[in-house]
From TrEMBL:
GO molecular function per UniProt: magnesium ion binding; phosphatase activity
Assigned protein family: Belongs to the HAD-like hydrolase superfamily. Cof family.
Cofactor(s) named in the record: Mg(2+)
Coiled coil (UniProt feature): none
Organism: Endozoicomonas elysicola
Gene3D superfamilies named in the record: 3.30.1240.10, HAD superfamily/HAD-like (3.40.50.1000)
InterPro entries named in the record: Cof, HAD-like_sf, HAD-SF_hydro_IIB, HAD_sf
Keywords assigned by UniProt, alphabetized: Hydrolase, Magnesium, Metal-binding
Name listed for the protein in its UniProt record: Hydrolase
Keyword Transmembrane listed: no
Length: 267
């Protein structure tokens, strides 16, 4: 039995409407009552995820911005990895040739910043109420930026930008896709897996003591490092191909993680 459960949010613990189902809420609370430690590990911003955690009323560590930030159950930031300030403006300049197809986002400190309104992104705020505000990226202060990410209608629309970013800065930054339509850039060495390893050490656990669930390429390190990595039925095909032979479960719309955990822990 694993004493620690770790889960991604969008496409994994949350349904396609970016909501926690009543069944999922119930299972997380019952696991907590049994003494099982639950950890959210997500690309989302801490301010966003903390609102979801608070609604559950369960104390937990939160791994956010793909591991660029970690907060303890008291809300104290214990891990902080920022993009080198000198690289921020060159990264943001990559958007210029693709602005008609690519929407640029920045997580800076406690803020989510965009240059142009994007109504589709409001769906991600439904559960928490955390949302973006407008900023001028050409003059933005480059300190304390944990993540730059680009969103497009299709993976094909993102490929020219992501290929260019990897060619220019691939050895200086960590880059991944959280969705085929969302390309994300963090400081080097940042990923959910390394952040989780640090958290588990604090609690006297090893990676073998955790079971983890995910659906995107930003989950690949975490799933491959833990005692049991479980892939969602609705996962990005690239993740499935990267983790051939790993256990797969149902769809996030069917609260598959909750049902799996209820069986595993006899809830």
């Amino acid at each position: 039995m694993y004493p620690v459960v770790v889960s991604d949010l969008d496409g994994t613990l949350l349904n396609k409407q970016h909501e926690l189902s009543p069944r999922t809420r119930d299972v997380i609370c019952r696991l907590s009552e049994k003494g099982i430690k639950f950890i959210f590990a997500t690309g989302r911003h801490y301010q966003d995820v903390e609102q979801i955690r608070a609604q559950l009323g369960v104390d937990m560590y939160l791994i956010t911005s793909n591991g660029a930030r970690v907060h303890n159950p008291q809300g104290e930031m214990i891990i902080q990895h920022d993009i080198t300030p000198e690289l921020v403006h060159p990264l943001l300049a990559l958007r210029k040739p693709f602005e008609d197809k690519v929407h640029t986002n920045v997580y800076k400190g406690e803020q989510w910043m965009v240059e142009v309104e994007h109504e589709d992104l409001h769906a991600f705020s439904k559960e928490s109420g955390f949302t973006y505000h407008l900023a001028d990226f050409d003059s933005v202060d480059t300190s304390a930026i944990q993540k730059v990410f680009f969103v497009a209608e299709s993976h094909a629309d993102l490929l020219p930008l992501s290929d260019q970013a990897r060619e220019l800065y691939g050895d200086q930054l960590y880059m991944t896709y959280s969705l085929p339509e969302c390309f994300e850039i963090m400081a080097p060495g940042v990923c959910k897996g390394t952040a989780l390893e640090e958290v588990l050490k604090l609690k006297g656990y090893g990676l073998q003591d955790a079971i983890a669930f995910g659906d995107g390429m930003n989950d690949v390190e975490m799933l491959s490092m833990v005692g049991n990595g479980v892939v969602m039925g609705n996962a990005d095909p690239a993740l499935v191909n990267s983790l051939l032979g790993y256990e797969r479960i149902g769809h996030c719309d069917d609260h598959a993680v909750a049902e799996y955990l209820a069986r595993l822990y006899s809830l």
